Amino acid sequence: MLVVRPAAPADLDHLLELAILSGPGFTSLPEDPDQLAERLDLSRDSFTGAIKPQDRWYTLMLEESETGDVDGVGSVKAAVGLHRPFFSFRVVNNAQSSPSLGIKLEQKTLVLVNECTGWTEVGSLFLKADRRKGGAGRLLSQSRYMLIGAEPELFADNVLAELRGVFTPDGACPFWDHVASKFFPMEFDEADRLTGSTDKQFILDLSPRHPIYIELLPEPARAVIGKVHPQGVPAMALLESEGFRPNGLVDIFDAGPTVACGRDNIRTVRDARRLTVAISEEVNAELPALISTDSVSGFRAVRQRAYIEGDVATLTRETADALKVRAGETVRVKT
């Protein structure tokens, strides 16, 4: 059975493997054991409540319970931009006209902004290639919203997600090569590393001071602004199905889009119901449901069959054991 559970320091080897497989441009999964170990420590402290709610970064692992194999990762960062700026480019429409000539123009520009301070971020969604079918990605993605819905007061009113921008099959990034590298004279991987491991002052120091007119950029750069990496297309579809929409921001290095949604408008947060657990040897239900625990500290999630009658969800013993819940306790269920 596939189970989504909190990451722990013992998951370092699993997380490093996923980071290596994720490839370039996945800022939240650096191929750096020390950074990943710090992140796992932070996740442990987040789930146990050892740190302030706004400083928490919850990391979730997708595990095959029978084998112990870890095949995916996802995360929820309680708040961005509080300790380090959250820089993006905003795509701005500029209208110009010459009444005497009867000419009207709309020019799009990229403007460096520091917005979304304090917003919650869902991210780090990555699965091994052989797990990208059969609903595993949807389980892992939606589990992040079940976590938010378990204790919504721990999260911001607005939720965002950044998606990786376009890279060519040989690992080149058109926007970086034609635009960003002109302001950051280093390799993409180095800039990516600095973004995740410093206070980002270098971005403020080196970024363009004036708007960049998109029409003046080379076509390969223009073509990828706000576009998603091919591997990120399924993730984008999942986000859109939950109610997320582009908000006009793009990444300053690869121009990947940012999408956002109000916390209480996220479909899974809104539609999941709190139900009381009953346990039976067999469950007669036509389709599996998304089921999670009702608290952040002991969070676990599965997609299994549940028979729902009134305010009671009847689960099999195997499902209850996977969630580590007992009869009479509360779960959240989205059908």
Automatic annotation (TrEMBL):
Annotated keywords: Acyltransferase, Arginine metabolism, Transferase
Q: Which GO terms describe its biological process?
A: L-arginine catabolic process
Residues in a coiled coil are none
Which InterPro entries does this entry report, sorted A to Z? Acyl_CoA_acyltransferase, Arg_succinylTrfase_AstA/AruG
Q: What is this protein called?
A: Arginine N-succinyltransferase
Identify a single GO molecular function assigned to this protein.
arginine N-succinyltransferase activity
- The top EC class is transferase
Q: What are the EC numbers?
A: 2.3.1.109
Q: Tell me if Aminoacyl-tRNA synthetase is a UniProt keyword of this record.
A: no
Keyword Acyltransferase set for record: yes
Superkingdom of origin organism: Bacteria
- Kindly give the Pfam families that the UniProt entry links to this protein: AstA
